[in-house]
Design a protein that fits this description.
The complex is a heterodimer of chains A (263) and B (340). With 263 residues, chain A is an alpha/beta fold. Chain A has helices at residues 2-9, 59-67, 106-110, 112-116, 124-133, 149-161, 179-196, 207-213, 244-256, and strands at 17-28, 31-43, 48-52, 74-79, 82-83, 91-94, 167-171, 199-203, 216-220, 227-232. In chain A, the strands form two sheets. A six-stranded mixed beta sheet of chain A has the order 6-7-8-3-9-10, sandwiched between helices. Chain A has a four-stranded antiparallel beta sheet with strand order 2-1-4-5, covered by helices on one side. The longest helix of chain A is centred in the C-terminal third of the chain and has 18 residues, at 179-196. The termini of chain A are far apart. Chain B is flat and about 75 Å long. The chains are: A alpha/beta (263), B mainly alpha (340). Bound molecules: adenosine-5'-diphosphate and magnesium ion. Chain A: This is ABC transporter ATP-binding protein.
């Protein structure tokens, strides 16, 4: 518990993120497939931004650029003014698939980042604290195949959080979970974000999820993705799904995504 | 097994109720053990009853030994409850003990007693026992030589194969140079190198080590390489965003992920290196079990050949078992994800 308290009070404020006129394209059998076109988003430190858009429009591609896993074909990305050129543990991604390493126990999976940075020996308590945080301390010695989908995703979240990221990048992390687990984990995510203060970038295909969680919802166009709308959600937490203000925004967003006829 | 109604049981009392099923279950539990004992008594008596058609010195001792085994099987079965895990182990193997006892009995009768099988080519069990007791030093020397040669060659081949496989799986440049060489030389059976190896290497021992290493190295290289190449990019992405350097990606991501493949290669390499070992020993190296076989053939000592074959198969299966247990220890995480 001491370790837990320490992890929570650990100062890890968020970083600012500037996406400036970013364009990207893939080469598919010699033909160029434009995926991002002139995307500019400026994210304040500690903001929770949700990205919504049609499937295949380029959201994951944008997240990979933010993470530094790929370099953009045009434009620049900056974390706190510093240009993003390669991955760094201050920006950690949680993918849709938990992608836990099957040959490592839960504890060793969570320890991955600290081990890779060569600081695990002195920082073992952070691993324990992160596991406590997602409520999986009793599964520390389990292997990934022994976990349920929700538990595996929690481990992936702990594996990201243990690094005290300044920007947490979430690519549809709850997409595959059942609705009950999903609602629980949404609440946990908000609580974590409020406690730790990291900047959050969340891709989701669920407008309701975006509105319950985020300060700001950015809606993308079809591929190549452009910013179609940038909506501020000024509502205190915890938010209620039935809130008429959110329902109104939801209708507006679904309209932007081309669903006005049915909604 | 018969069934009883509740009123039957109440009327006739408990003791009578349980006797018949008890006997049946006793036979089910101990039957195989008793049969094993009977089979080994039969084998022992078959040794002692008739006179040998040839001149073998261990017939009497073998008969006594068989009777001792029969007694152990009997007491082990009857007293299984008091013997703990040893009793359980005996119970599990009892059917095999029955089969073995019967086989030995038939073998004994068909060779030593009535010579139904042509004699010098099919020696009786006591002739093979005689080899183990009387020719032990030479056999042990051969075992030692074989193990030394095999172990050295295999370890070299496995290490080099593993390192090569990881390098080609990881580095495009290494792959560019090594891949064609592997394609060209790899499929050649290592034994085809034998004549060349024996006069280019300084000693037949180093030549054989090289050939065993070659036979081991090829499958280990190919499977390590395919294992490393098939690791999902998602793992690398995760590790990279967490701050992993290239060395971490190789040592902590690529290699552990490829390990199941590597073990397939190690098993294949073990099999093909055994073949090379025996051939190399028969042709060039003047030591080892392969050489012992060759030597025994020269003297028409058929019992010695069977004795050497039995030792050889024990060694080979022992090596495979050892490799299995290493794999099981290193790949515990696979339990539950794949069928073993
Ligand atoms: N590595 C790649 N190579 C080629 N095309 C890609 C690659 N990654 C994504 N794409 C293409 O880019 C487009 C956008 O993909 P993505 O960013 O994953 O969309 P989403 O918004 O659903 O996350 C898709 O049409 C996809 O086929
Ligand atoms: Mg996506």
């Amino acid at each position: 518990m001491v370790a837990l308290a320490e992890a929570i009070t650990h100062p890890a404020a968020g970083a600012a993120l500037d996406i400036e006129q970013v364009g990207h394209a893939f080469d598919i059998d010699g033909t160029e497939l434009p995926v991002l076109s002139d995307v500019s988003i400026s994210v304040e430190p500690g903001e929770f931004v949700a990205l919504l858009g049609p499937s295949g429009c380029g959201k994951s591609t944008l997240l990979r650029l933010v993470a530094g896993l790929d370099r953009p074909k045009a434009g620049t990305l900056r974390e706190d003014e510093a240009r993003i050129t390669r991955p760094h543990p201050s920006r950690v991604v949680v993918f849709q698939d938990p992608t836990l390493f099957p040959w490592r126990s839960v504890w060793d999976n969570v320890a991955l980042g600290l081990e890779a940075q060569g600081i695990l020996k002195s920082q073992r308590h952070r691993v324990d604290a992160a596991l406590d945080l997602v409520g999986l301390s009793s599964f520390r010695n389990a292997y990934p195949h022994q976990l349920s989908g929700g538990m595996a995703q929690r481990v992936a979240l702990a594996r990201a959080l243990v690094n005290d990221p300044k920007i947490l990048i979430l690519d549809e992390p709850l997409g595959k979970l059942d609705s009950l687990t999903r609602i629980t984990m949404q609440a946990e995510l908000v609580a974590l974000w409020q406690r730790k203060g990291f900047t959050t970038l969340l891709v989701t295909h669920d407008a309701e999820e975006a509105l319950v969680l985020a300060n700001r919802v950015i809606v993308f166009s079809d591929r190549p993705a452009r910013v179609k709308a940038d909506i501020r959600v000024d509502r205190p937490y915890p938010r209620h799904r039935g809130d008429p203000y959110l329902a109104d925004l939801r209708r507006q967003i679904l309209g932007l995504l081309g669903l006005d006829a049915t909604w | 097994m018969s069934t009883y109604s509740l009123s039957d049981g109440l009327a006739s009392g408990a003791p009578r109720l349980s006797r018949a099923p008890l006997l049946a279950s006793w036979i089910r539990v101990s039957g195989a053990g008793i049969l094993a004992s009977v089979a080994w008594i039969a084998f022992g008596l078959s040794c002692l009853w008739w006179a040998d058609v040839g001149d073998w010195s261990r017939t009497h001792s073998l008969g006594i030994a068989a009777l001792v085994i029969a007694a152990i099987a009997l007491f082990g079965t009857v007293g299984a409850d008091y013997l703990g895990s040893a009793g359980k182990a005996l119970h599990k193997r009892a059917p095999w003990l029955v089969a073995l006892g019967m086989f030995l009995c038939v073998w004994e009768v068909a060779t030593a007693k009535f010579a139904w099988l042509p004699l010098p080519f099919f020696p009786p069990p006591q002739a093979i026992i005689e080899v183990y007791t009387d020719d032990l030093p030479k056999l042990l020397d051969s075992v030692f030589a074989s193990v030394k040669l095999q172990l050295g060659g295999y370890l070299i081949g496995a290490t080099v194969g593993f390192l090569t496989g990881v390098s080609i799986g990881w580095s495009r440049a290494v792959g560019y140079w090594v891949h064609p060489v592997l394609r060209f030389i790899g499929p050649l059976p290592a034994t085809a190198w034998l004549p060349i190896a024996f006069f280019t290497f300084p000693s037949s021992w180093s030549a054989s080590t090289f050939l065993i290493a070659l036979a081991t190295g090829f499958p280990v290289t190919v499977l390590t390489w395919s294992g490393v190449a098939s690791v999902s990019n998602a793992y690398y992405d995760v590790a990279r965003t967490l701050g992993a350097k290239p060395s971490f990606l190789v040592l902590k991501v690529a290699i552990p992920a490829a390990l199941p493949h590597v073990f397939v290669g190690l098993f294949m390499g073990l099999g093909s290196s055994f073949a090379v070992l025996v051939v190399a020993e028969m042709i060039g190296v003047k030591a080892g079990l392969g050489w012992y076989l060759q030597w025994a053939q020269g003297w028409a000592a058929y019992a010695n050949m069977y004795a050497a074959l039995i030792v050889m198969s024990l060694l080979c299966s022992g090596a495979i078992t050892l490799l299995f247990s290493i794999r099981d220890r290193l790949l515990v995480w696979q339990k539950g994800t794949v069928k073993w």
